Amino acid sequence: MSDDLARMGTLNRSIDSRVKGTDRFTLNGRRTDMARVSFVMIVCLCVSLFNARGECEEAAYDLTVKIAKRNGAPAAGLHVKVCEVLISNKLVPKFEGDLPADGTIRIAGLRGGKGRPVHRIYAGPNEEQIDTFRFEGPEAPAEYEVTLPLMAGDPTPEASFLNLLTGTRSKLSDYRGQIIYLDFWGTWCVPCRQAMLHNQDVMKRRARDWAGKAAIIALSVDEDPEVAKQYVIERGWTDIVQVWNADSPEAGWECQIRRDFGLDDIPRAVLIGRDGTILW
After folding, report:
1. Whole-angstrom distance between the N-terminal and C-terminal Cα of the chain?
2. Structure pTM?
3. CB atoms within 10 A of CB 5
4. Which of 9, 75, 76, 238 has the maximal Cβ count within 10 Å?
5. Phi/psi at 229 (nearest 5 deg)?
6. DSSP 231
C-alpha cells in the first residue's frame, strides 16, 4: 500500500510533458530547416526582450512580512525561506530563518516594478510553498500579511462531497479510520489525465485489498458537476471515489477545501492519516 501511495505522490509532484518534432518541415509550401527557424525565433525573442527593457520599471524595496497561523496567532518558530524566482525558474534566496515570537520578518533588496520576478515563500521542514507575491506598482506596500495554509501535522477541515457517480452525499470525516489520498483535478487540466489514469489503475488492482483501509478520492474543481461526471464516465475512471465539493459558498476552483489547503495549481494531492491528520 505504502509503495503505491508513494508512487502516486511522486507522480503528482513530477508530471511533465515533452514535445517531439522533426528536423525539417513544410512552411508556406517550402521545406524549412528547424535550425534556421530556431535562429530566427531566437533573434526575434532577443529583440522583444530588448524592447521590453524599457517597460520593466525596476525598483528595489524592503518589505515586512507577517506570517500567522489559521487561528490568527503568530507562526512563531516556523522555519521559512523567501526566494526570488528568475525567468529560468532558478530560485534566489532572499531570506531564510526561523520566525521570531511575533511572526514578523524584514526582507531587504526585493525587486519590484512592471515585469519583475515573482517571490515565493516556503515554510516548514519540507519547505512547502505557502505563498507567491509580486508587486508591479510604482510603490510596494510596507507590510505584507500571510496566513498559513493547512500543512503536514494539521487536522483536516470538514468538507461535504457530492459523489459524481451515485449522487449521494458524504463528508470527509466519514472516511476517518482509513488512509485517504485526496487528489484535486479538473476536466480542463491536461496533466490531471495522467494522474487520474494512474489512480484508476491502482484502485482497479487494489480495491479488494484496500477495502475499509484506504481510498483514493478524486475531487473535481470544475464549476459544473455534470461536466465532471460525464468526463469521468466517458474515460472509465469509475473505480475511484469521484466527488465534487458540495455545500461550499463558492463552487469549482474557488471551493472552500481547495482554498483551505492553499493549492494554487493541479493536479495536487494530499495524504490524510487514519486520525484525520495531514501526512503530506
Report:
1. 16
2. 0.59
3. 18
4. 75
5. -60, -50
6. H
